[in-house]
Specification:
The protein has 71 residues and is mainly alpha-helical. It is built from 3 helices and 2 strands, in the order H-H-E-E-H. It has one domain: Arc Repressor Mutant, subunit A (Orthogonal Bundle), CATH 1.10.10. The chain has a two-stranded antiparallel sheet. Strand 1 and strand 2 form a beta hairpin. The radius of gyration is 11 Å and the shape is globular. The mean pLDDT is 87.
């Protein structure tokens, strides 16, 4: 997993807008698509914008990560 994908999935787990992660919008979109294709994240239901980490235990782990300067 590259740095941008890690930043993006941690942002999603913390409830932060993924596009707030460092990187251009195109790179973040690619990271979101790759994470979705790998089954780590999914879009929220119809009529709702955003993403969520599929596995709640993994989401809790990612949200607790202490990665200085990551986000």
């Amino acid at each position: 997993m590259n740095r941008l994908a890690l930043r993006t999935v941690v942002a999603v787990a913390r409830g932060v807008a993924p596009y707030a992660a460092k990187g251009t919008p195109t790179e973040v979109k690619r990271a979101l698509d790759a994470l979705r294709d790998a089954g780590f994240i999914e879009r929220l239901g119809p009529g709702r914008q955003g993403w969520r980490v599929v596995d709640p235990l993994f989401a809790a782990y990612l949200a607790r990560l202490d990665l200085p300067g990551l986000i």
